[in-house]
Every structure is written in structure tokens, then in C-alpha cells.
Amino acid sequence: MEKIIVRGGIPLSGTVKISGAKNAVLPIIAASILAKDGVSVIKDVPPLDDVLTIAKVLEAMGINTQYENEVLKIDAKQVKAHEAPYELVRKMRASFLVAGSLLGREGYAKISLPGGCAIGTRPIDQHLKGFEALGAQIEIGQGFIEARSNGRLKGAKIYLDVPSVGATENIMMAATLAEGTTIIENVAKEPEIVDLANFLNGMGAKVRGAGTGMIRIEGVQQLSGIEHTVIPDRIEAGTYMIAAAITGGSVFIEGAIEDHLTPVISKLQEIGVKIDINENGIQVSAAESLKAVDLKTLPYPGFPTDMQSQMMSLLMISEGTSVVSESLFENRFMHVTEFERMNGKIKVEGQTAVVTGNTKLIGSKVSATDLRAGAALILAGLAAEGETEISDIHHIDRGYVNVTEKLKQLGADIGRVKYQESENIKEQKSIGRVLPIQPTMA
Ligand SMILES: CC(=O)N[C@H]1[C@@H](OP(=O)(O)OP(=O)(O)OC[C@H]2O[C@@H](n3ccc(=O)[nH]c3=O)[C@H](O)[C@@H]2O)O[C@H](CO)[C@@H](O)[C@@H]1O
Ligand SMILES: C=C(OP(=O)(O)O)C(=O)O
Fold this sequence. Notes:
Elements: E1 2-7, E2 13-17, H1 22-31, E3 35-37, E4 40-43, H2 49-60, E5 64-68, E6 71-75, E7 83-84, H3 86-89, H4 98-106, E8 108-112, H5 125-133, E9 137-141, E10 144-148, E11 157-159, H6 165-175, E12 181-185, H7 191-203, E13 206-208, E14 214-218, E15 223-224, E16 227-229, H8 234-246, E17 250-254, H9 262-271, E18 274-278, E19 281-285, E20 295-296, H10 308-316, E21 321-325, H11 335-341, E22 345-349, E23 352-356, E24 365-367, H12 371-383, E25 387-391, H13 394-397, H14 403-409, E26 413-418, H15 421-430
Parallel strand pairs: 2-17, 3-15, 4-16, 7-8, 11-12, 20-21, 24-25
Antiparallel strand pairs: 1-25, 1-26, 4-6, 5-6, 8-10, 9-10, 12-14, 13-14, 17-19, 18-19, 21-23, 22-23
The chain binds ligand 1 and phosphoenolpyruvate (PEP).
């Protein structure tokens, strides 16, 4: 096992190149299952644990995948099995995204129940409601969901109770090969939805309205593999923007797309951070002083929940008191306890956290409780006095490509060290506490 060690206090400078978006590439890989002919060639595929996991899900179905130099080739001419096994789905709930394309193409999908995880219960009722509206029968038992249809799915009008990213994607994929027209209302508008729609349309699908509140899909008979380049990761970009701001540095975020980052840019500007945008990326430079702000997470184009913990790390050192409201996931303040170990002063009541600013952060031993919480601890460590030691970093590796190398290139004093799990437990017992076992998924 590995830990990340950060020694804080160094202003970062230079350029960081943003990788392809995890949350765009996962549904795109799932969508490649729909291609009965041709090979999908997906470019800028980040070498992340999640990408390897979903590729294994496809392999388990007898689909051929080849990954080299951030290019993933998927040959789905033959699908030999229709099951996404528990061992893979438990590692990553986004594996459930293969349900829509398998069902749409093969008329049958058996997927292990993704279940709840660290940040909240994360139900899939809206995915299933969509599949049923398209004519599928759903059965749930022994930890699996089975969806089947007699012949092609049938286009339908579907209203989502919540604008779920995953449900929008899964239903969109299932509907591409359905008979007739599907209209999905109250859909998610995230840039990753638009990237998926572009991929599907390149394959021969007829998807209109992605990026707005209503998507219309005319079903087609067949889809083919194509070449596609994944959009840059707006959450990785936002994380490095905060790395620049929290260290009082100046960093060029190469490849970041302004339009995808509007709520993050606006909040950073309100805090006082200097932002300059050009066609190749975004320059982020130190603020003379950092001011407290309030923020509330919302579906896109609102402030992203995936940036809430990272923003909180910056608010801890800003002047004044900030109020952070989390409206998407009921358990997404786990980083607060870890921040407290670093001298953070935050009071949580329900879905609201009140952050006392102007805190002198002190390096400490902390644990990454989920992906973005882990990223936020690295950020806090970059600003803290002394050494921060972050364990459970497998969560961070789900979503950040070479995070320690990228930060080192910007001048950070950061690295990874190997350790035995038994050493850690011994150490925790000696100081009178044993951490609960963290869930596998973030
Ligand atoms: C792989 C991926 O793209 N993950 C992102 C995706 O997750 P994911 O697609 O799982 O998130 P959703 O948009 O589905 O969830 C948003 C809200 O809808 C609720 N809900 C969702 C589905 C459903 O059937 N019923 C229901 O009630 C959830 O509990 C949550 O409160 O969007 C989240 C919200 O921006 C991000 O944090 C995740 O990083
Ligand atoms: C919560 C996240 O991802 P996932 O939906 O894959 O758990 C995330 O990217 O912050």
C-alpha cells in the first residue's frame, strides 16, 4: 500500500496539462458496446483505475479492448456474455452504465447492484424507471438487476424526478437503438452528457438537445465504432486551479475549458483569485487576500459537488466565515473530520458546513475517505505547515492521473511511500484509535 506525503508552504508555478475527463470517458466506453461493426478508437483516455475497471467489465462480456498511450480501442462486434460481475461493479458504481447499452443492443443485461457508497446512498430508481418506460422488464434479486426486453425497446416519453447524470446517460444509450422516438425531460446538462451525445451521434445515433433540459432521441437500426477524443477533465482542472490559489502561486491550467468551469471560476474570482483565460487554458494567480464566500452545490451549471471539498480547503485559509451547502449527496462532508486533524475549524449541521477562515493549517496524518476528499487533503497539505501524510490514496487514484508527479512538476514537495497495512494499524492503536474500514467505492 502507498501513502502520499506532502510538505506544505511552497507557492506552485508552471504549467499543468489536464487529462481526459473520467466522468466523460466512462459512459463513452459503455456506449462503445452499442457498435456492432467497426472499432471504437477513443483518444485522451486517462490511465485511471476506473478506466481499467470498466475495460475489465467489457472484457468480461467477451468484448476486445486494447489500451496504449491513452488510446483505447474497443471491438464490440461480438458480445459473448451479458453480465457485469459483482467483483468489478463493487469497485466502481459507474460500471452500471453498461446496463443501457447492453439492454439496447442485446435486449438483456444482468448487472450487480451498485448499492450505496461513501458519499451517499446513490439510488438507481431513475435509471430503472427509464428502462421500464422503454419496455424493459426489471427483476431484482440475489444482488443483481436483470433487465430484458422482447425484441427492440420502444421509444417513450420519460420525465426524470432528479436530473441524474447516470440515469440520463443510461437511458440515452438504451434509446439509441429503440424503435421510434424517446424524449427525456429534466435531464442532466453536464458537459459529459454532451460529450457522450457527440460520441453517439458520430456512431450514427440521432440524439438532439444534449446540454439542455430535454433530450430527443430518434432510434436507429445500427451503430458503428468511430474515433473520438474525450473532453478535458473539468474537475481535475478545478482542483489544480485551487492548488495554485491555496499556495499563493501562479499556474497555467493547460486544456481547461472556461465554459465547463464557469461556477468554479466565478467562486474563485469572488474569493479574490486572479483568473486569465486564453484559448489554450486558464492562468490562475495568487490573490492579494482570500475572502470567505458561501456556496451551494447544484446540478450543472451550478457549482459541482465534485469540487465542494477542494473549495472547502481554500475557504479554511480565507478571511471570514463561509457557509457551504451540499445539496446532492447526503454524506459528502467526510473530509471535515480529516481537516479538523489539520487544525481546520468547521461545524457541520445536516447538509451545511460553516467554515471558520483564517486558519493556520498544520500538517497531520489523515485519510482519504473518498476521491474528492482525498484531493482536498492534498490541497490542504500544500498549504499546511509541516508534513501531511495521506493514507487510503487508492480513492485518489480513481480520478487523478499522476497527481504527485503533476504537482512535483509545479514545484510541490510531494511523493508516495510504500507501507504495510499492519504498520498503520499498530501505529493507530498506539495512539488509541483504530479507523473504521472505509468502503471500497467513493
Ligand atoms: C461517473 C460519474 O459521472 N459520476 C458523477 C455523477 O454521478 P451519478 O451519475 O451517480 O450522480 P447522479 O447525477 O445520478 O446523482 C445526483 C443525485 O440524484 C440522485 N439520484 C440519482 C439517480 C437515481 O436513479 N435516483 C436518484 O435519486 C442521487 O442520489 C443524487 O442525489 O454525477 C454526480 C453529480 O454531479 C457526480 O458527483 C459524480 O462524479
Ligand atoms: C463521485 C465521483 O465519482 P463516481 O460517481 O465515479 O463515484 C467523483 O468523480 O467525484
